[in-house]
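Quick log. Single chain, no ligands specified.
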Amino acid sequence: VVFFIPFVITLLNGVGGYPRNYLYNFPLLVVFMATGMKKTGDLCGRLLKKTKASRWIALGLCLVYCIFSVNILFQEYYPSLKATTGKAYSESILKHSQPHDLIAVQNPQNYIYARKIIKENLTNILNDNRLSGFQLITPLNYDLFEYDPPPRRNIFSIIQRFWSSTKFKTFTLDKENKITRITNSTFKSLIPDKTEELIQWKIFRGKGDISTIKMTGAQDQIALKLKTSSENIMIAKGSVPGVVSINKPSIAILVWTVKMDYKEEMIEPNLSAHVTSPSGPQTIQVKMGRINEGMNLYLSNNDGILSESNWFLRSSIGIIPPGNYSFSLWLSCKKDQTLIYDEFRLFVIELADKK
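-> predicted structure:
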């Protein structure tokens, strides 16, 4: 009875277990199957009063089972394994995107064939300080407003009342996936080249050291260094110069490079918006989510698991309603941690027009 528990659970609730649960039971099932065929043959032989009939009945049952199994394998199982080739999938993404598009993939299973394009586009965005749009790759029947990049926030829920997912321009990539253009091409860069050095960083909470250092081999010569002791954490705040006027619901896109020990965990940068309302000045924390979590991109030509570069290239997005804003960046540093940020890019890009 114990051996059949995994199968009973699957039959009752439709949830399968680990493959090893069934792999270890396979020899036992073969024994039971062979015994069942033998017993059935013996029973039929006695009923037919022919001693040799039991042998042929058992062989007949085995033959019927084999024919049935082969039919299932070739008619259903093997055709279900057929998938679009990675090359065709990548070419389809290139066809429906531009070199400065930020591309997010909802399902990590689809990272492998989109990774190279995503890294090249993100590097273009960082180097050229230019953005042409934001695109999201999802299954065909996926509801865009359910997109929840870490820390598991449905970032599009704020506009669900006003925007319908059927209004965005969508292109089919293969029989299972689509790519959706979420934005127009109109964007504003809030941190122009070289002006990130004008951001004044201050300790908002905790204790630690904030300094600028000269780097070799990085995008710029000046980088921001945050360091804490084993007893303290630190939150640093930096105000982005200028005020930006946003006339339509938009997406805020933050791109940054950070140097750290790849074994460490870090808290992603946060973005806050300061706005003047009739009731007075207000500060709003923008609901940001890091896209393509688990796809570690390195700022290096050798971008792979054996890469010697520890400059991580990352990005996050959030929704900004219309208004006049000034922005601030918030960086967190855990105990006994050193983080070096080389470059920040902050964009505001309009959501696609309603149709």
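DSSP finds six helices and 17 strands in the chain.
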